[in-house]
Amino acid sequence: MRTLMDARQIEQTIGELAERILSDPTLLPTAESPLALVGIRSRGELLAQRIGAALAQRGHQAIDIGALDITLYRDDLDSRRALLVPQGTEMNFRLDGRPVVLVDDVMETGRTIRAALDALVDFGRPRLIRLAVLVDRRRHEFPIAADYAGMTVADTDPAQRIIVDLRPTYTDERVYLAQPPVEAS
Fold first, then answer.
1. What is the pLDDT averaged over residues 170-184?
2. For the chain, what is the radius of gyration of the CA atoms?
3. Which residue, among 133, 158, 101, has the nearest Cα to 14 in the 3D structure?
4. N or C: which end of the chain has fewer CB within 10 A?
């Protein structure tokens, strides 16, 4: 296990992501179309809430925050060993004509983001969609790139996984590179 970010670094990175979102002139909200942060369940949801809090601390007032469940939009449903149980989408606002920032913890192949884009358009037609991720693994299989990435990790063994532990789910916050399990022979 190799630690990539500790709790302090995660908090600092969230602040940096908020600053980059604030400085993007394409995301300027209006009274009719406030900014929407939509986190992909489950860690993307936690990050969206924390980015929203960081934006509010910096004076950004017009923000709606939602959580998007992409379970039924995944392209690997029939090939997964474990049964996925949908957690539900929670967005009490419409997306039509609004700037949206889609938030996730780790972008690896882009398949999760592709599924999220499919799910988002079922809730309306945003004016534009930007992507913010805590970690970009740079192993993209789709022509999808993060607009705001807190960290880029590209020189790792593809068998290794990047794990993000965030409160309140975990007591210690960290981002780390985990070794694959050793198979018994």
1. 83
2. 16
3. 133
4. C
| Structural tokens at position 90 | 């929670």
Please, how many CA atoms are within 13 Å of residue 54, restricted to the half-sphere of its CB?
20
pLDDT digits (tens, 9 = 90+) for 113-167: 999 999 999 999 999 999 999 999 988 889 999 999 999 998 788 889 999 999 9
- What is the maximum alpha-carbon separation in the chain? 62
> Which residues are paired to 6 by β-bridges?
174
The whole-angstrom separation of Cα 67 and Cα 62 is: 17
Handedness of CA 90, 94, 95, 99 (dihedral sign): negative
The set of long-range contacts for 5-13, using a CB threshold of 8 Å and a minimum separation of 24, is: 5/134, 5/135, 5/150, 5/151, 5/174, 5/175, 6/173, 6/174, 7/172, 7/173, 7/174, 9/175, 10/134, 10/166, 10/173, 10/174, 10/175, 13/134, 13/150, 13/151
3-class DSSP assignment, residue 114: helix
The DSSP H or E segment spanning 163 is strand 161-165
State the Cα–Cα distance between residues 173 and 171, nearest whole angstrom: 7
pTM of the model: 0.91
